Amino acid sequence: MAPVGPHPAVADLRRAVREALADVPEQALVLTACSGGADSLALAAALAFVAPRMRLRAGLLTVDHQLQPGSAARAATVKDLATELGLAPAEVLTVTVGKEGGPEAAAREARYAALDEAAERLGAEAVLLGHTRDDQAETVLLGLARGSGPRSLSGMAARAGLYRRPLLGLPRQTTVAACEALGLTPWDDPHNEEVRFTRVRVRRTVLPVLEKELGPGVAEALARTAAMAREDADALDEWAESAFQNCALSDIGESVKLAVAEVEKLPVAVRRRVLRRAAIAAGCPSGALSATHVLAVDRLITHWRGQKAVDLPGGLSAVRRYGTLIFAISPIA
């Protein structure tokens, strides 16, 4: 009798992890972030299987956000499971979640700060995250609701620095099926049922309604849209970076100056990216620079009537003078 292979869901996960790590050099350390939920638990098991066969070292990080009773005990359980799977090093990263930006954003900021520190300290080549195709679909819908443009609609990147998301092409049901096949018991985070969180409402209400009214495959279609939007956004960003260098009269010192005659030749999508790039180069905090700010600066190019300077976050201003657009700390002399 021919040997029986792994469950199809398990095989899909292992294949995805192998592909994500294809360029990682032998003996490098790869870490996986694991909350104990089905997605990250299945990912940890797949990494534990794949890593030794690729001659890689593999470890696990779990973050205790200290937001729920018993969180420390759950984190310890995940760490113990890592040992059973053969993942080492295995660490619990305990963080304190602030309040800025709301609970979801604050928890995410604390989590990534802890993962960044641990990855650097341990010398990791990559950190794997368990986001699935369903997570990507939710992210696209949230970006659409915010009206944030193509970069937001592009969702989460398969790779971003040290971070890699091997499961973006797989549905959440695959990770659930893999855990069942492997005898792993995921932890269901109560926060995943809290409708006060926007993402939970999208997951529990918005996506099911879309599936019901538009037919199955909505999540897959949204994830596919994200991939195409990312390709377009990346190409526009590269174009804008080159255009910025061509338009810049100065980006050294306390101000950034752009030649208006060169900027106004650019297509609108590239021009506004150049303006955003110039503001950030002058010292404007990128997270505080909104589309509204960029549109106001754009009017200094497209609807010039001798108007006053545009105030920007970080104490900066943008002003047009004698064919030059100047970004500098306010007031501009």
From TrEMBL:
Enzyme class label: ligase
An example molecular function term from Gene Ontology annotations: ATP binding
Keyword Cell membrane: no
Free-text note on domains in this protein's UniProt record: The N-terminal region contains the highly conserved SGGXDS motif, predicted to be a P-loop motif involved in ATP binding.
Family: Belongs to the tRNA(Ile)-lysidine synthase family.
Keywords in alphabetical order: ATP-binding, Cytoplasm, Ligase, Nucleotide-binding, tRNA processing
Lineage: Bacteria, Bacillati, Actinomycetota, Actinomycetes, Streptosporangiales
InterPro entries found in the cross-reference section: Rossmann-like_a/b/a_fold, TilS/TtcA_N, tRNA_Ile_lys_synt, tRNA_Ile_lys_synt_N, tRNA_Ile_lys_synt_subst-bd
Domain tRNA(Ile)-lysidine synthase substrate-binding: 258-325
PANTHER family: TRNA(ILE)-LYSIDINE SYNTHASE-RELATED (PTHR43033)
Its EC number(s): 6.3.4.19
Any Gene Ontology biological process: tRNA modification
Native species: [Actinomadura] parvosata subsp. kistnae
Reactions this protein catalyses: cytidine(34) in tRNA(Ile2) + L-lysine + ATP = lysidine(34) in tRNA(Ile2) + AMP + diphosphate + H(+)
Top-level taxon: Bacteria
Record's protein name: tRNA(Ile)-lysidine synthase
Residues involved in ATP binding: 35-40
HAMAP family, alphabetized: tRNA_Ile_lys_synt
Chief place of localization: cytoplasm
Ranges for domain tRNA(Ile)-lysidine/2-thiocytidine synthase N-terminal: 30-204
Cleavable signal peptide: none
Gene3D superfamilies, A to Z: 1.20.59.20, HUPs (3.40.50.620)
Function: Ligates lysine onto the cytidine present at position 34 of the AUA codon-specific tRNA(Ile) that contains the anticodon CAU, in an ATP-dependent manner. Cytidine is converted to lysidine, thus changing the amino acid specificity of the tRNA from methionine to isoleucine.
